[in-house]
Amino acid sequence: MLAYTLQRLGIALIVVIAVSALTFAFTNLAVDPARAVAGEGATDQDLARIRAEYGFDRPPVTQYLDWLGSTATGNLGNSIRQRRPVVDVLAEAFPVTITLSCAAMTLALLIAVPLGIVAAVRPNSWIDRFSQGLAVIGMAMPTFWFGLLMIMLFGIRLRWLPISGDATLVHFVMPAIALAYYSIPIVMRLTRAGMIDVLATDYIRTARAKGLLPGKVLFKHALRNAMLPLVSVTAVQFGHLLAGSVVVETVFALHGVGFLAWQSITQADLPIIQAIVLVLALIYVVLVLLADLLNAVLDPRIRLG
């Protein structure tokens, strides 16, 4: 297990370094950093002074290594537009996005996993057709459109829920539902397919022939093996929710990381853009790493392969 863990850690480290290099390269190629600091009306003398002051006139490799070194110590630089440390800006935005993503992922699992299990136990039944139809609608309906429909119904017409802001947990109800609806079809269909495959195996038929209770066969023997792909897809989906919350946060006026990313892109605030991409990539890699380790615990064949 230790060798497998070290191997996965090495791969994760390589991925993070590669993402950091690509992030730094693309953001500096897309926008002139000196012009982003000086503004559109800057003269050539102003640009030359800013390049010398901020070190933009140095070789790109040197700039990247300096940025990577300062990032490793927790110094993500200062925001160009807000004139304060990027760490402070992210510390204000991340709790909103983390709360939204955790609520959405929890809601998606609570709905999708039971639906997938029931649909697998009773294939071609009405619950199976209902879950399949729900998955098709969920994959076809854009998140922002679903969010706007909920705002019109529950926020404006019925006045049950607030339509914007993040002051209380109630403000996260509709955004969490809108974001969860993105993951429900994927998790539900994967659970259904995994359970159908496991329920058709010989050891499940043997367990049933031995007279074990249906609940014990289903949850103790079948669900554990069907969970292996579910653990991986849950980690990936949670990473997608963190990175893809920009639309939901914009629709519901939540000042999280997604809204901050959109705002920073429109303002060409390169330090914040670079920090957001790097932090989200790091979270994504950690989630996948934890999913791999958990799968290795659930199925020892993975770490022996």
Description of the molecule:
The chain has helices at 2-30, 33-38, 44-54, 60-72, 86-121, 126-140, 143-157, 173-199, 202-209, 214-243, 246-251, 257-266, 270-298, 300-304. With 305 residues, the protein is mainly alpha-helical. The radius of gyration is 24 Å and the shape is flat. It is 79% helix and 0% strand. Helix 1 (2-30) runs antiparallel to helix 13 (270-298), helix 7 packs across helix 8 and helix 12 packs antiparallel against helix 13 (270-298). The protein has 2 domains: 2-72, no CATH class; 86-304, MetI-like (MetI-like fold, Orthogonal Bundle).
CATH class of the largest domain: Mainly Alpha
Name the helicity range: over 70%
Work out the count of structural domains: 2
Largest sheet: none
Give a summary of the structure in a few sentences.
The protein has helices at residues 2-30, 33-38, 44-54, 60-72, 86-121, 126-140, 143-157, 173-199, 202-209, 214-243, 246-251, 257-266, 270-298, 300-304.
Observed structural traits:
mainly alpha, MetI-like fold
List the SSEs and their pairings:
Blueprint: H1 2-30, H2 33-38, H3 44-54, H4 60-72, H5 86-121, H6 126-140, H7 143-157, H8 173-199, H9 202-209, H10 214-243, H11 246-251, H12 257-266, H13 270-298, H14 300-304
Helix pairs in contact: 1-13, 5-6, 5-8, 5-10, 6-8, 7-8, 8-10, 10-13, 12-13
